[in-house]
Structure to design on (332 residues):
């Protein structure tokens, strides 16, 4: 085992994906059970996500779910990847994380993103349009100010119990996220793009980073899908359900529950669906433990990342959990 794999913390982001034939309640219970398993395997953090009106995702209230995860685990860090700040008032977000940090001191991560609703109808229901994402920088400043007591917009208002507490903030790099993370002196979570572009963003982030009350130096968390199995074919198969959900969403406008490999194999995909499916299957880290170890070592060495956040989802939970086990064993 290489030193870079041994020395790099690995963490988990679970989106509470629903599966064909199962209800959202099952997905949420599975997330809590998964967190306990991730802790036993030695993962550093366990994060949950925020999605609204998405049939394939049960995770719509990340701070509520994070509380359930923290209560069910003992020492693993717990947080959000992330709370989409344009959907909320910063005061309310500060209060929610103040409660979490009060209940589970020293364990709470406040991952923050700038995405808005998936469709116009969702954005209308949330009460925020696409332009709300443009205010992310100001919202971030206000949110951090509620914890430090330095927010200026409402001088007579305090965020109890948040003021004086320090849940660990992270910025998800969407759009100008890397630049904002650097300007605010916050850790950066980045992934989901071509490797060259990602590494350029990381370089810019490190160069522009300004130390803050929250972090003395840059901290980079790479995020991505990793599938590990005894054979390359089985590892690739783990990616199919998520790839099909992505392809379907891009061609039909609805992100569906995860389908089994057998259901996907029986489909007659349209040319557009097939193209989207193959695109979604590409660029993912998958293979035998030896193959994945080599690929991860190369990526972590090139990026000098401080941490790796694994975001893999699949229909077969047993195979998915085995993939996470095999990945953890690469570092053990």
């Amino acid at each position: 085992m290489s030193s870079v794999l041994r020395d790099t913390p690995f963490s988990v982001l679970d989106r509470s994906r629903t599966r064909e034939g199962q209800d959202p309640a099952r997905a949420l219970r599975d997330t809590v059970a998964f967190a306990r398993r991730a802790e036993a395997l030695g993962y550093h953090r366990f994060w949950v996500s925020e999605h609204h009106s998405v049939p394939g995702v049960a995770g719509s209230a990340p701070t509520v779910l994070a509380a359930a995860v923290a209560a069910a685990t003992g020492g693993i860090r717990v947080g959000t990847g992330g709370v989409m700040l344009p959907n909320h008032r910063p005061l309310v977000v500060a209060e929610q994380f103040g409660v979490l940090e009060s209940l589970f001191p020293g364990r709470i991560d406040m991952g923050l993103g700038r995405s808005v609703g998936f469709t116009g109808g969702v954005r209308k229901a949330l009460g925020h349009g696409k332009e709300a994402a443009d205010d992310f920088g100001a919202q971030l400043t206000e949110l951090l100010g509620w914890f430090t007591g330095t927010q200026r917009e409402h001088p007579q208002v305090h965020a109890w119990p948040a003021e004086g507490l320090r849940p660990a903030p992270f910025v998800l790099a969407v759009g100008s996220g890397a630049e904002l993370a650097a300007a605010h002196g916050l850790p950066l979570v980045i992934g989901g793009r071509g490797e060259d572009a990602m590494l350029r963003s990381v370089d810019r982030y490190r160069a522009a980073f300004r130390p803050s009350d929250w972090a003395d130096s840059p901290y980079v968390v790479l995020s991505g899908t990793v599938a590990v199995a005894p054979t390359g074919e089985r590892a690739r198969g783990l990616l199919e359900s998520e790839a099909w959900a992505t392809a379907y969403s891009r061609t039909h406008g609805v992100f569906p529950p995860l389908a089994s490999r057998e259901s996907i194999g029986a489909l007659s995909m349209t040319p557009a669906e097939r193209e989207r499916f193959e695109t979604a299957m590409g660029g993912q880290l998958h293979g035998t433990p030896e193959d994945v170890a080599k690929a991860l070592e190369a990526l972590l060495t090139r990026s000098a990342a401080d941490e790796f956040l694994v975001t893999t989802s699949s229909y077969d939970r047993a195979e998915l959990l085995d993939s996470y086990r095999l990945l953890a064993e690469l570092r053990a």
